[in-house]
Structures are given as structure tokens and as C-alpha cells.
């Protein structure tokens, strides 16, 4: 493909994407296809000769788009958002065009150095302690997901502890976290060789919006110590998946310090909100952390994947994850004058992800990004008030950020505390194609989650979603 062919194809692709966003509200938010649908539509083997771009676009429209769940739809309220933006999209395009494999500084100096600069910018936006900056012993790196971030932090913590207690102590190492902590922690423990019975998930307090209490964590640690176990890792969450709870960071940090434990903070969802002054207090206590993570690809207009991890002392990551085969040796690395991010992560190869985050920060600016976050929180407040005004529903936990947990109150005749009633309401709403929302279970109750955060969502979409839920609830209650 020469430059003119690229120009023509690129223009057509951008037109396709622009038309997609222009018409995104016409598609069912949740894909309505059945399992195995695509196998019936595509041939069994790859084409032996090239096809035309027009034929490919036709197949995308007719066969691929029906199987897409539209995360960028203004009527998407499920899970947590995964934001896209013009700036993020353009950055992703440019990264794909350069197509570097930036495992070490020498493979593309700009990729490493821009990542260091942008992570320092972001740390300052969040008012993280100076120890997390590249100018100190720590620094930041872009991981693929929060799952990768917690894994590399866990591996660094494990190896730090084993150097102190001996390699044979692995079976005694214990991880502590709330039972509301993301399941990625449990997977990280499986990969890191932490015994399943040594992953202690402490029951969260329903009276504190399902945050864990320091007393419960201290009690669990004390019990483990009596059995000769070694507490080595505490994971706290700012914005849990089920209810956006915020664990008590200062107290958990002090507990970790008292027992020489690694303290990791997962702020994958809610970390973005903490660039706003009125939400920054949720990070109070981060000064006690050894590592801190948030996902720019969730609520920060940065296309997936872009998970930001900061550590207070990068040497622990490097000691745990570094390899130095002959074929990767080079003058800059050997002189220790550069950062090689291959030693801070699981894979060797890495994409130029800092480019899209840099472009988002440059093309929007911090003030506009703060306004963007605040707008979604205001829309969630609006939805929360709509729910409160209808006596048939209840808000289950106090709203902290842009997630509203609610449910249709069970009927007196219900034997399952409204589980089927709310499941059927959610299923009917999602099957309509008009909105998409997800659920959780809190204290045995089936709860609906309404997470505001899609880039195109406005008040009219929130109101329309609520009217749909009201109408469907009325039909369900009438037929019960």
C-alpha cells in the first residue's frame, strides 16, 4: 500500500467510524445475537485472493456490528464505562501507525520518555506523594489492565517478603483484602503461587457502604499470626465494583506498615474522579501505599487499554521482573542511564500507549476533563433522585461517584427477596435494546447497577432509561 492508497483507505475508515458514532443510538445497546451466530455467516476458510474494502465494510455492517455491544452508546449504563474519545482514537491510530515494540528505551526513546513524563503529569494531577514521581525512587508505568497492575505489585511484594523470610516461606504468605475487592486479586494470587486458603477476604461492613473496616482486617491478621502465617500484602479499593465503596486508606496503610506488608490501592474506576478537588480526599492515605493503580481507559476518555500504575520504589518491581538476555543488551541499558519498562511488567513487548494519554491531556486539558467527570456524577445524582421519588424502588447504598445501586422492592409474596423480580426487570430492559445495565449481589440482595460514564450520555438519556425501567416495572407488578 503506497501513501495515496493509505490516504484513501484511511479516509474511508474515518468516515465509517464517524458514521458509526453518528448513528450509534440506532443500534441495540446490548448485542441481541445468539451464541455461534457468526460461524453461520462467515466461510470456513480464509480467502485465497484479496477482497475489496467495500465488500469488507459491507460485512462489518451486516455481520460484525450486530454482534457488538456498544460500550460508547449514551444508553450504556452497565459495569463501568470504557471511554473513547476523538483524542484517544487519534492517539491509537498514530500508535498503530508507528507500531513500535517498546520494551526498552533504545527501541523507541520517545515511547519510554513520554510515558515517564505523562505519568508524572498524572501523578501531580492526583496529588500523589512525591515518592511516586520518576525523579524519586518510584515512578509510573502504563499496564494493560488493573489485573496486570495488581499482579506485578503482588509479585514484587512476594519476592520482597521471601528475601526476608526465605524462599521456603511461600506457603505461609497471606494476602488480605475486602470481600468486595475485584476478582483480579484472586487470579493474581493463583498466578503468583499464593495458596488459595491464604487469600483472606474480610467481610465488608454493609453500614459503611460495603467498605472494609480496619478492625476486621486487624483481627484477621492477628488470627493468622497465631497460626504462624506471614501477612505480606493488603489490597484496598477506591470505588469497589459492586457499590463504589472506598476502603479506609489511612488506617489500612498503618496496619500494613505495622506488619511490614505491601500496601496496594486499586482505584481502577474512581481514581479518575480524584483529579477533582472535591473528590481528592478519597485518596487520603495514599502516602502509606507502596503501589497505586487507576484505569485511564475507564473514565478518562482514553481508549482501552491504558492502566496507570505507580510504585514508591521501582527497585522491587525490577528485582522481581527483570531479565537481561544477551540479545537485549545495549549501551544505554548497560550504563543504567535509562528506564527499560520491560522490567516493570509481565510481557516483554509493549505498545506506545502513552501517546493516546498524552493526546487526551493535550487536546482536552485538565479543566475540561474535570468538568467531564463532574457532569457524569451530576447525572448519577439525577438518576438517584428519580429512583428515590418512586416508592416502588429503593436506593440500596449511598451514591459516592457515578454509580447508583438500586432495586425494585420485593412483593410481600416473594420468596426470594425480589431476586427474580429484579432479574426479570434487568433482562427486559436489556432485551429491549434501548439500554444496558448490569447487576451485583449485596448482603444476599440482587441489586441493579446504573453506572453513568459513556462519553455521549446526556440528561435526556438518563431520564429515558428511568422511564423505561418504570414502565417495565409497572408491567411486571401488574402481572405478578
Automatic annotation (TrEMBL):
Q: What keywords does the record list, in alphabetical order?
A: Decarboxylase, Lyase, Pyridoxal phosphate
Instruction: List modified residues, type N6-(pyridoxal phosphate)lysine.
Output: 298
Q: Which GO terms describe its biological process?
A: amino acid metabolic process; carboxylic acid metabolic process; phenol-containing compound biosynthetic process; primary amino compound biosynthetic process
Q: Which domain of life is it from?
A: Eukaryota
CDD domains assigned: DOPA_deC_like (cd06450)
User: Which InterPro entries does this UniProt record tie to the protein?
Assistant: Aromatic_deC (IPR010977), PyrdxlP-dep_de-COase (IPR002129), PyrdxlP-dep_Trfase (IPR015424), PyrdxlP-dep_Trfase_major (IPR015421), PyrdxlP-dep_Trfase_small (IPR015422), Pyridoxal-P_BS (IPR021115)
Task: Kindly list the GO molecular function terms attached to this UniProt entry.
Answer: carboxy-lyase activity; pyridoxal phosphate binding
Q: Which cofactor does it need?
A: pyridoxal 5'-phosphate
Which Gene3D superfamilies does the record cross-reference, listed alphabetically? Aspartate Aminotransferase, domain 1 (3.90.1150.10), dopa decarboxylase, N-terminal domain (1.20.1340.10), Type I PLP-dependent aspartate aminotransferase-like (Major domain) (3.40.640.10)
One CC-aspect GO term: cytoplasm
Family indicated by similarity: Belongs to the group II decarboxylase family.
Name-wise, this protein is: Tyrosine decarboxylase
Q: Which organism is it from?
A: Digitaria exilis
Amino acid at each position: 500500500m503506497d501513501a495515496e492508497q493509505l490516504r484513501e483507505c484511511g479516509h474511508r475508515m474515518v468516515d465509517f467510524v464517524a458514521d458509526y458514532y453518528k448513528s450509534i443510538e440506532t443500534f441495540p445497546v446490548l448485542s441481541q445475537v445468539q451464541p455461534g451466530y457468526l460461524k453461520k455467516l462467515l466461510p470456513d476458510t480464509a480467502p485465497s485472493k484479496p477482497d475489496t474494502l467495500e465488500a469488507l465494510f459491507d460485512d462489518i455492517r451486516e455481520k460484525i456490528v450486530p454482534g457488538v455491544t456498544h460500550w460508547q452508546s449514551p444508553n450504556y449504563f452497565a459495569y463501568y464505562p470504557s471511554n473513547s474519545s476523538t483524542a484517544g482514537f487519534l492517539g491509537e491510530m498514530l500508535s498503530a501507525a508507528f507500531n513500535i515494540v517498546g520494551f526498552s528505551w533504545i527501541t523507541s526513546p520517545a515511547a519510554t520518555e513520554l510515558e515517564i513524563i505523562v505519568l508524572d503529569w498524572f501523578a501531580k494531577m492526583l496529588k500523589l506523594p512525591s515518592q511516586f514521581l520518576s525523579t524519586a525512587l518510584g515512578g509510573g508505568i502504563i499496564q494493560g489492565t488493573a489485573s496486570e497492575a495488581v499482579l506485578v505489585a503482588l509479585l514484587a511484594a512476594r519476592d520482597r517478603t521471601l528475601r526476608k523470610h526465605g524462599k521456603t516461606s511461600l506457603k505461609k504468605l497471606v494476602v488480605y483484602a475486602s470481600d468486595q475487592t475485584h476478582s483480579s486479586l484472586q487470579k493474581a494470587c493463583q498466578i503468583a503461587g499464593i495458596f488459595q486458603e491464604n487469600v483472606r477476604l474480610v467481610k465488608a461492613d454493609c453500614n459503611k457502604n460495603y467498605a472494609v473496616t480496619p478492625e476486621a482486617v486487624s483481627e484477621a491478621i492477628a488470627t493468622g499470626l497465631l497460626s504462624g502465617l506471614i501477612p505480606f500484602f493488603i489490597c484496598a479499593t477506591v470505588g469497589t465494583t459492586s457499590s463504589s465503596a472506598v476502603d479506609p486508606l489511612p488506617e489500612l496503610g498503618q496496619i500494613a506498615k505495622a506488619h511490614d506488608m505491601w500496601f496496594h490501592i486499586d482505584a481502577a474506576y474512581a481514581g479518575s474522579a480524584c483529579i477533582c478537588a472535591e473528590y481528592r480526599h478519597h485518596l487520603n492515605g495514599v502516602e502509606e501505599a507502596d503501589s497505586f493503580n487507576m484505569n485511564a481507559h475507564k473514565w478518562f476518555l482514553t481508549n482501552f487499554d491504558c492502566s496507570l500504575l505507580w510504585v514508591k520504589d521501582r527497585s522491587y518491581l525490577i528485582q522481581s521482573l527483570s531479565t537481561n538476555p544477551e540479545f537485549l543488551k545495549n549501551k544505554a541499558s548497560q550504563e543504567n542511564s535509562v528506564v527499560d519498562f520491560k522490567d516493570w511488567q509481565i510481557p516483554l513487548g509493549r505498545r506506545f500507549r502513552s501517546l493516546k494519554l498524552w493526546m487526551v491531556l493535550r487536546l482536552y486539558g485538565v479543566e475540561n476533563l474535570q468538568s467531564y467527570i463532574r457532569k457524569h456524577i451530576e447525572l448519577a445524582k439525577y438518576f438517584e433522585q428519580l429512583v428515590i421519588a418512586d416508592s416502588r424502588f429503593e436506593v440500596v447504598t449511598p451514591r459516592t461517584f457515578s454509580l447508583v445501586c438500586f432495586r425494585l422492592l420485593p412483593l410481600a409474596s416473594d420468596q426470594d427477596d425480589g431476586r427474580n423480580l429484579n432479574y426479570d426487570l434487568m433482562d427486559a430492559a436489556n432485551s429491549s435494546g434501548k439500554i444496558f445495565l448490569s447487576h451485583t449481589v449485596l448482603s444476599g440482595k440482587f441489586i441493579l447497577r446504573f453506572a453513568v460514564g459513556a462519553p455521549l450520555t446526556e440528561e435526556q438519556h438518563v431520564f429515558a432509561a428511568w422511564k423505561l425501567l418504570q414502565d417495565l416495572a409497572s408491567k411486571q407488578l401488574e402481572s405478578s
